[in-house]
Amino acid sequence: MAILKIARMGHPVLLQKAEPVADPTAPEIRKLVADMFETLDDIQGAGLAAPQVHVPLRLFIFRVRTERSGGDKDDRPIGNTTVINPVLTFLGGERQIGWEGCLSIPGIRAAVPRAWRIRYEGVDTDGKPVVGEATGAHAAIVQHEYDHLDGILYPMRMVGADFMHFGFTEDLAKAGVPEFRRAAPL
Ligand code: NI
């Protein structure tokens, strides 16, 4: 196990389209996923995609902590989850706007529009199917991590130049910018 170095915005690996994982059960993939979880634990993050640790492959890990979860039946707290070669389907036309941060853009957050309800499927490191329907924070986290596999960072999803809702976490907190309600689809 090892704590991996996280690529920060500006590194080209974050802007490239990642390649499918040829064998999700390969020992090197199992090791990569274990190291990614150790890295995520170390930095106390919600999700991490392989390109963020300089590996341009289509896999990500995530969890939904109790404090993030919106309580909706598809937005309950969820433990450590690995999704390899994910396919994302958007369900319904509802949108949400919620605060997002990214381990590759440390210290900053922004309000980002996302689909409210999605379905995702992939496999884990045993090759077993991983299938989930997600709403709210759960859906936003999965979309954020999936975007990393296509070289998309969350500021690229922002609507216009909304600098009232884009800044350093610490300063936004000082300014008292209100939290968005994730539970309210927009
Ligand atoms: Ni990110």
Description of the structure:
- With 186 residues, the protein is α+β, with helices and mostly antiparallel strands.
- The protein has a single domain, classed as Alpha-Beta Complex (Peptide Deformylase), CATH 3.90.45.
- 20% of the residues lie in helices and 31% in strands.
- It is built from three helices and eight strands.
- The longest helix has 17 residues.
- The chain is globular, with a radius of gyration of 16 Å.
- 36% of the residues are buried.
- Bound molecules: nickel (II) ion.
- The site of nickel (II) ion has 5 residues, from helix 2.
Compile the SSE list and pairings.
Blueprint: H1 27-43, E1 47-49, E2 59-64, E3 78-90, E4 95-102, E5 105-115, E6 117-123, E7 129-135, H2 136-149, E8 166-168, H3 169-175
Antiparallel strand pairs: 1-2, 2-3, 3-6, 4-5, 5-8, 6-7
Bound molecules: nickel (II) ion.
